[in-house]
Specification:
Blueprint: H1 2-18, E1 27-35, H2 36-42, H3 52-60, E2 65-68, E3 73-77, H4 82-85, E4 95-105, E5 108-118
Parallel strand pairs: 3-5
Antiparallel strand pairs: 1-2, 1-4, 2-3, 4-5
Length: 120
């Protein structure tokens, strides 16, 4: 019995050391889906309904897209950015609510979107 418990404890320890750190916390972020390049270079002219057609062309080209909030820009990565933004196309130039994990690299914020819906 002692040997069995020792084996179990050893397996649990190995699993804890090998397993990735706890799952990233999902947060909710609200904002507009924009083309990152146009949003940064054109300011207010690079967002909104007037820029929707241009943003859609950029999205279909696979250009980096972002979630623009009142106080931050989150570059979209993960499955929503895969395959030339295929899962993102229905949300381009729209106000959305996105759930995902946030990270920061090289001074930029990123969101790996798990779910997204248009704000009503």
């Amino acid at each position: 019995m002692k040997k069995l418990l020792s084996t179990w404890y050893a397996l649990l320890l190995v699993a804890a050391l090998v397993a990735p750190p706890g799952a990233a916390e999902l947060v909710t972020v609200r904002g507009e889906i924009v083309d990152l390049g146009c949003s940064l270079s054109k300011g207010a002219a690079g967002k909104g309904e007037d820029h929707a057609a241009c943003a859609m062309v950029c999205a279909k080209n696979g250009d980096p897209m972002a979630l623009l909030t009142d106080d931050a820009v989150y570059v979209i990565e993960g499955s929503y950015a895969a395959d030339k933004n295929a899962k993102l196309l229905d949300f381009v130039a729209k106000k959305v609510e996105a759930k995902g994990s946030i990270s920061e690299r090289d001074g930029k914020l990123y969101i790996n979107v798990a779910a997204m819906m248009v704000q009503r």
